[in-house]
Structures are given as C-alpha cells and as structure tokens.
Amino acid sequence: MTPPIGCGEAVRRLWEFLDGGLDAADHLQVEQHLAWCLRCCGEVAFARELRGLLRTRTGITLPDDVRNRMEHFIDELGEETEERSRP
Amino acid sequence: MGPMVGALRPSERAALRQLARNELPRLYALARRLGGVDPEDLVQESLLRACRSFGSLRDLQAGPKWLTTILTNTWRDWLRKDLREPDEVPVEEDGPFSLYRTIEEEDPYPYSDTLHVDVLGAFSEHDVREVLQRVPPRYRVALVLRYIEGYSTTEVAEMLERPPGTVMSQLHRARHRFEREMWDYAGESGLLVGAAAGEGRGQREVGS
User: Fold this and answer.
1) I need a surface site. Which of A31, A42, A44, B205 has the fewest CB within 10 A?
2) Looking at the domain B99-198, which fold is it?
3) Does residue B202 carry a pLDDT above 60?
C-alpha cells in the first residue's frame, strides 16, 4: 500500500502522469488519489485539453513569399561550397 | 559569403535539398514558435549549418529530427544571452499555478456548465501563439519540442544537451508558466470579461 497524497502533490505530478513520465509508485499514488478526488479528475481532463490546445492552436502557415524565397535558397544549397572546393 | 566547407557529392546535395524542401513548412513553423529571432534567417542559417555537417547524418530517415536539432541549437546560439537571464517571476512562490483552479475560483462564466472548456474556447490561434511567446525562451523551447513537435522527454534532453531530469523540471516550470501567462493574457486582453458581462452579471476583473 502506497501512502496517500494530497491534491497539491497530485496536481504537481499531473502532466508527468499524463506523459507516462512517473515511476510506477508515483504513478500509482496519483491513480489512487484520482479514484476518490473528483476535482483532480477535472484537473486531469483540463490538462489534456490544454495540451491539445498547445498542439492544435499554434498552427503557422508558411507564407507564399517566404516559401518562394526559401525555395530559391534551397535550390542553391551546397552549390557554392562545391564550386569553391574545385581546384 | 558562405563558409568554406568540403564539397557535397551531387547525390548528397540532391538528398539535402529534397529533405530541406520537405521539411521547410515545419522548420519555418518551429522557428516562429521558438520566437525572438527572424524565422527566415534562422531557417537559412540552420540549412547552411546542415549543409556543413551533412556528413554526420548517417540515415536520411533521421533527417527531420536532425534538422530540428540543428535549428534548435542555432536558435540557442543566437539567444544565448536571453537564455541565461534569470526568470523575473518566481514560478512556485505560492505553489505551482493551476489555471484549472484559478478558473474555478474566479468563475468568469457564472452561468456556464462547462466553465473550463469555455475559457479555453475563448483563446484563438492568435491568442495561444501570443501566450507561447510570453513564456521565457528557456521554458518555451521545452514546451515547443515536447508538446508541439511531439518529441519524447529523452529526445528533448538529447537535443538540448541536458540531463533528462533537468528537462523534466524545465517542462514542469514551463507548464505552470504557460498556464499563468494564459490567465494574465486573458485578463489583459479582456478575453473573458466580455463574456461574463454579456451574461448580465457583474463582471470580474481578471488578472489585473
């Protein structure tokens, strides 16, 4: 039987818990806490949402003008270095 | 002028260019998310470095991760001073900041049954990007690599050349800082105040 933990400790470990980053004993303590603490269950669901938001709401599209410039740059990539190394 | 380096064979040059073309949108987005520098300059400098060290890439399958590492290191070189600056806000002065509990206590949508979801829903893509840029660079890089790029903590530790334990604690602080910045941003931008006022009840000032 692992010693129980309070909400503060459970919240501190929450993201690591979701990541599977806790060792087995620490993971079990959080699970046991969540079994009776509805508020911390809410925290878990919220942490999941928040991670999703970080992933899905930070989208950045490559602007066409940047793409054009960068593609020209890539077309020349390595060119100069080979020219210079020729005898 | 470009640096003097050994020549790439035509096949290597073609492979590098193809890899760079494929990865361009992702590298540009990564550069913008890391922030604090001109993203186009950062991608260009990173590709030049990639060109110089192409010989160190043994497996083309590992190319995307290899380019991520080069770009992240280039960014770190450019921001070296900012990365060393002490954090002006002690992260855990009063215990870790919990956005969930703050929302619960402040209750910005008094009539909502889905309070927390509604608060997150108030943030547009623009808002989330802005919040991310408010997180100090040394925490931001961990958040970006771990939660946006999706690398494991071990991989992030390798990329940043830090022990995994250090990255874990960096991520821990980064998450709380991100939550705090979300709340402060919501207050400063009036993201939540309008909604509460629209419900005809006394609005609460948040984050002021």
Assistant:
1) B205
2) Arc Repressor Mutant, subunit A (1.10.10)
3) no
